[in-house]
Automatic annotation (TrEMBL):
It comes from the Eukaryota. Pfam families: Pirin (PF02678), Pirin_C (PF05726). Belongs to the pirin family. This is Pirin.
Amino acid sequence: MTIITPLSRFITKSVLSKEQSEGVGAKIRRSIGRPELRNHDPFLMLDEFDSDATVGFPDHPHRGFETVTYMIEGQVQHEDFAGHKGTIGPGDLQWMTAGRGIVHSEMPVKTESRIHGLQLWINLPKEHKMCEPQYQELRDGQIPRATPYEGVIIKIIAGESHGVKSQVYTRTPTMYLDFKMDKNKTVTQNIPSSFTGFIYMLKGKAYIGDKEFEGEAHHTLTFSEDGAEMVKIQTKDEDAHFVFIAGEPLKEPIVQHGPFVMNTTEEIYETFVDYQHSQNGFERARNWRSSIA
Ligand code: FJE
Ligand code: FE
């Protein structure tokens, strides 16, 4: 018997993200997490935010997962209940492991006319859900690039591409790549056979897989789960900008209540109690108010 492995993953679904409101007046396009894209283990949510600077995400908690903020344009300030504070500018990355608990505020720098970026929520495996919070912060210039061909630039936010590796530590094995392709280019991207993944298009058009499935801006294109270890991506008469995100599914039960993501309803209940009583990781939430919101 011969088993024929397809050359490239193919696209199983293409879903448009329409604009909606989140936080305080922020305009977002939800990719992963919207009704048609609910179960994408290990990913919980992907939002493309694109707003003016009058809006934001004031003081709110997280537990049990990671938030990965990647700026495209403009600047977002953040401040947490432990005094960790900073600004994320164009091309910069903030990889925040909330672990047992973070309360923070994410607000645009008020002098900016536009804030545009992506926030990805990655679930944590059971053994890491209650870990100490950690930040991995990289400026645009510190994120490595691969240029496999002229006119193809890949920023390696997490994982590996064309021999270039990211130093970001991923508790949930994750690849996060930012592709900028000129028109009429072809590139292949390796992907571990067990990973689930998708492309989120930011600009232009790309053709994915051997069947050349067309992807346009604000669409999420999910990969087949057939074990193929490569994705073929082409551009034709337009340049393209997209992110390629893939990860090892955790295959653990998920109980999510807004910004808390645990394995059981019991753990979610304990989280409410911990947050309410400022304990078990939320000690510093007591009477804390951010200075930026
Ligand atoms: C959150 C609603 C929210 N997408 N994109 C409920 F809006 C948020 C939240 C964000 C967020 C923040 C940034 Cl900087 C970018 C985002 C949702 O903060 F955490 C809950 N629970
Ligand atoms: Fe947050």
